Amino acid sequence: MTAKKKLVVLTGAGISAESGIRTFRDADGLWENYDVMKVASIDGWYDDPKLVLQFYNERREQLRTAKPNAAHVALAEAQQRYDVHIVTQNVDNLHEAAGSKQVLHLHGELTKVRSTKNPALIYDIGYKSVNWGDTCELGSQLRPHIVWFGEAVPAMDEAVQIAQQADIFAVVGTSMAVYPAASLIYYVPDDCPKFLVDPADVPISGITAIREKASVGVAQMLELIDKL
Ligand code: APR
Asked: What strand order describes the sheet that includes 142-146?
């Protein structure tokens, strides 16, 4: 039996939009009625940590009832035919909920928190809230396990290695506006077929673009990939 081809999929907020989770840049700079820089930057955390904790508590509560949509499910089913690696900018767990096994979170995970003293102390809290005064075992404040603006992206090195080994590369539902995540495309081998699913015109050269919502477009893309 020949080895399965490696299908690497970079996903962004657009893949979860049809699961009821709002994207960042489709609205007017506000995200779920908050100023993104106040709730998703390291400076915002230092300025008003209670607001940041409240914001992520609300996001966790929203995620509790969110369900994977047809796009998440189609990528999970594609594992039967391909060695699928999801590299996601999303902090939700909808790829995992759909059954995807190899998911790398570039920007952290909503269902985890970590120590502000030792970043290696990471705790799985599911959909529970974390409040000011909740501490790690070392006695320091817990913070969301999220990569904020102004912070490094520790998973980027691993993501680059995955992209470099891609046989097929796909981009789904991201404006490609945030770096270093958007630079992943530059590490994909030149001869690797590349696909994009997004209703908007995301400018990436040399890519087969499907201008559809993820729930429809991912299935169309997989049909094209199956014919390669
Ligand atoms: N299906 C597919 N794509 C969609 C859908 C849909 N139903 N609805 C919207 N989109 C597309 C938009 O056209 C846009 O290109 O999803 C993209 C969302 O872009 P952004 O809001 O910029 O989200 P994303 O690219 O994931 O943001 C990257 O920015 O704020 C930070 O850390 C945060 O991970 C996030 C990063």
From this structure: 122-124, 108-115, 142-146
Structure tokens at 44: 């915002």
pTM of the model: 0.97
Domain membership of residue 120 as a residue range: 24-65+115-146
Q: How far is the CA of 11 from the centre of ligand 1 (A)?
A: 8
Residues 161 and 210 in one domain: yes
Per-position b or e across 83-92, b if 16+ CB within 10 A of its CB: bbbbbbbbbb
> Which atom from ligand 1 is nearest to the alpha carbon of 18?
7
Which atom of ligand 1 sits closest to the CA of residue 36? 30
CATH of the domain at 83: 3.40.50.1220
User: Could you tell me if 29 and 14 lie in one domain?
Assistant: no
* Residue 19 Cβ contacting ligand 1 at under 6 Å: no
The count of structural domains within the chain is 2
- In this structure, the answer to whether residues 2 and 99 fall within a common structural domain is yes
130/193 same-domain check = no
Give 170-188 pLDDT, tens digit per residue: 999 999 999 999 999 999 9
Q: Whose CA is nearest to atom 29 of ligand 1?
A: 178
> Do residue 86 and residue 185 come from a single domain?
yes
The reply to whether ligand 1 has any atom less than 6 angstroms from the CB of 204 is no
- Ligand 1 contacts CB of residue 23 (under 6 A): yes
**Backbone CA torsion sign across 5, 156, 109, 63:** negative
> Is the Cβ atom of 89 under 6 angstroms away from ligand 1?
yes
Q: Above pLDDT 90, what percent of the chain?
A: 92
